[in-house]
Amino acid sequence: MVDTDVTPAAVGVAPWGSRLLGSADEGALSRRLRVQLLLTVPLIFANLIGIAVSSLLIGVVLPGPPLFTSETALLNFVAVPVYVSAAFAAGFVWGTVGSLRTLRWATDPDRVPTEAEQAATARVPRRLVVQQALLWFGGMLILSPLYGLVDPAYVPKVLLGTGFSAIVVCANSYLLAEFALRPVTARVLEAAPRRRRRGLGVFGRSLLVWMLGSGTPVALLMTIAVLDLAGMDISTNRLAVCVLSLGGATLVFGLLLMTQTLAAAVAPIRGVRNALRRVEDGDLDVVVTVYDGTELGELQSGFNHMVAGMRERKRIRDLFGRHVGHDVAAAALARNPELGGEECEAAAIFVDIIGSTTMTATRPANEIVALLNEFFEIVVDEVERFGGHVNKFEGDAALAVFGTPAPLLDAAGSALAAARAIRSRLSDAAMEFDAGIGIAAGRVVAGNVGAHRRYEFTVIGDAVNEAARLCELAKQDESRVLASAAAVDAAEEIERKHWELGEPVTLRGRIRETRLARPYPR
Fold this sequence. Notes:
rod-shaped
């Protein structure tokens, strides 16, 4: 299972795709005020523009009797302003205040929303659109009959002009509300990452832009043409004004809506792209804030799951390398591991603590573990510095091999140099114990030994056994380091000069004699 219990920093200084939405470390009160302003001011501005466009369409553009006459003065300067003011007040209380009440849980940065709060938060943009649509179409139902009492020819003008503005304003308001609520949506999606996305989606947003930026103005032009064919006397000049005005509206509002839609689509993609660049640079502590409720949000979430999986695999690989050695781990990952081994030239170092049995019987277990860890830290450092790897920790002893699985040009020389370095560091560290070190080189069999379900990399051969016996003998030798003459002979001259050949001995369990070699005193 992928470990996602990490809290790395979000990508960039604009985690929600825009600097207008603030930064991730912004205070709860500042963020609440920011969301309130972004949710209120743009919606009011959009509705004011809608009212202005509606007034131009009804009063100047659309065919029919002139609107600004003495008969309509009462409606123009009393009824319309009264309804607009009442609609703004109702929209503010019903829409903005109600939405902020729904989002009250978000003022607590540590609060995890309940399922009911999540559902209510997800409905806020749609609810705002429905509320504004009701207010706009309520104005149509109230004002069009009043103008119809003055002249029935006003009714289609009022319906068409108000309806066009209502549709454009409502669609624009939906996009604005989604934008303003990104920080809150991100917390909802974080609390319920598997929650079903209920936004319009990329296809729905694109279709909405086409319908409002192109479809609605063209439909209005077609309606005017139908009215002309139905008998309404529309002059050529008036028809030209309608085409120019609605064509201009198509260009302006189409561009506005397309810009909003593209910005909403590009922001998540840009965030994922920037995060991918950081992953390419080796930074796996990157996370993308999921704030989009469409397929793009699934892309953001999918990226986070992918990187979490990469972090988990890196952690497993690191643990694998720590347990078996990084060279063994790299070899196992590079090819399909299987049981069996292959013969090769290698060198082995066996290191064993002197007097560990007595020390274990007289010291607390935690002290023994601390001493062993300090000892093995030196062994591992020097073995890896000279290109080998520690194959096994056996209680208070360690077996290190050189030349397998990663080949070395001078395996014997590297092993001898590592043994001298270990001895030097143990002497300088003034440890509470001493250790014997044995080094041998020759043909060994290296590979995976065990069963198909559980096996480990190991090295078997006479050189390994010889190193273990030399280690036993080194415990009684003054130098504490003994190597076979064969290992010294196999090393290059740069390392051979540090060793002095000694007497031949027959090691325990062996038939042939082994000539000893000791490092020259420092």
